[in-house]
Amino acid sequence: MQIVKAIGKLAEDCRNAVGSVDLDAAGIAAPVLMDAATGSVNRAPNLPALDGFRFTEALEKEIGLRVLLENDANSAAIGEHWLGASREIANSICVTLGTGVGGGIILGGKPLRGPDGTAGELGHICVEPNGHPCPCGSWGCVEQYSSATAVVRIAREISERSQGSILSEKPLLTAFDIYEAALRSDPVAIESFRLTGYYLGIALAGLVNVLNPELVVISGGLASAWDMFIEHTRDQITKRAFREPALRVKLVRAKLGDDAGILGVARLAFLATQ
Ligand SMILES: [Zn+2]
After folding, report:
1. Window from 10-19, 234-243, 264-273 with minimum mean pLDDT
2. How far is CA 22 from CA 19, 100, 205, in A?
3. Where do the DSSP E strands lie in 162-266?
């Protein structure tokens, strides 16, 4: 399979870059639902050719090293728990607000995966029963309201039925445009981020009750716009969750940026070869 060859080439480049050191294992983070026990891909929504593929086995043959494969959002949660914002915190949730909404859950210091690899898929928690359709097959998933993609769609929808927004004049909108407009007090941009925070808060309030985490780490591109939505998220958690877990949980920004996933799978590879 071509993707295996491409990853093999990248691994070779990494190997050449570090020179003559002994390598025991490679860690790979991928946007797939996987069976951690066998290293097979259960489902790859963005790469359907990988569905059912024995990915780890193929990569091990290609690279000639033991391979640890992990879901990308779980990897980010493991990275933040090892060296980042949730370091030394036993129970935390890592939410990635990017193209979609990803999630990783650490309970008792360990990642929660589930037998089908879907544990932590918090982007598909329903926050609007008859809401926007989601590629996962459901409707109204928080991913459809609190991702960078969603904030653009929402801003577009609101600006089409209102007047006086600087966003109406832009043919191609990005989440960054909306953030800049919010800084200039544009009402459509402010309302779009309010909805982002509101829906994220609804999803997190349920998780705060169910998992009783000490920390929620917010990462991904949209975390840069944190100041525009986080109060609305916090407000929903306070209003909807039980008092004790709502008071306990802290919302913080991720520390490791795009490196979180890389460090997370490196951690898995270190642990596996110790
Ligand atoms: Zn969904």
Report:
1. 10-19
2. 9, 37, 46
3. 215-219, 250-253
* Distance from the alpha carbon of residue 10 to the mean position of ligand 1, in angstroms: 31
Q: How far is the CA of 95 from the centre of ligand 1 (A)?
A: 15
Distance 255 CA to ligand 1 centre (A): 27
User: Could you tell me the pTM of the whole model?
Assistant: 0.91
Per-residue confidence (pLDDT) for residue 44, from 0 to 100: 86
Q: What is the mean pLDDT of the chain?
A: 94
Report residue 59 CA to chain centroid gap.
Answer: 24
Query: 46 φ, ψ to 5°?
Result: -95, -10
103 close to 123: Cβ distance less than 8 angstroms: yes
Q: Retrieve residue 264's tokens.
A: 């997370």
The residue type of 184 is: R
Residue type, 227: D
Sign of the Cα torsion 17, 23, 29, 34 reads positive
Residues 6+ positions from 16 with CB-CB distance below 8 Å: none
- Ligand 1 centroid–CA 89 distance in Å is 29
What integer pLDDT is reported at residue 164 of this predicted model? 80
Q: Which of these, 147, 119, 122, 117, lies nearest to 132 by C-alpha position?
A: 147
Query: Please, which residues bridge with residue 43 across strands?
Result: 33
Residues 6+ apart with CB under 8 A from 83: 255, 256, 263
CA of 11 to the centre of ligand 1 (A): 32
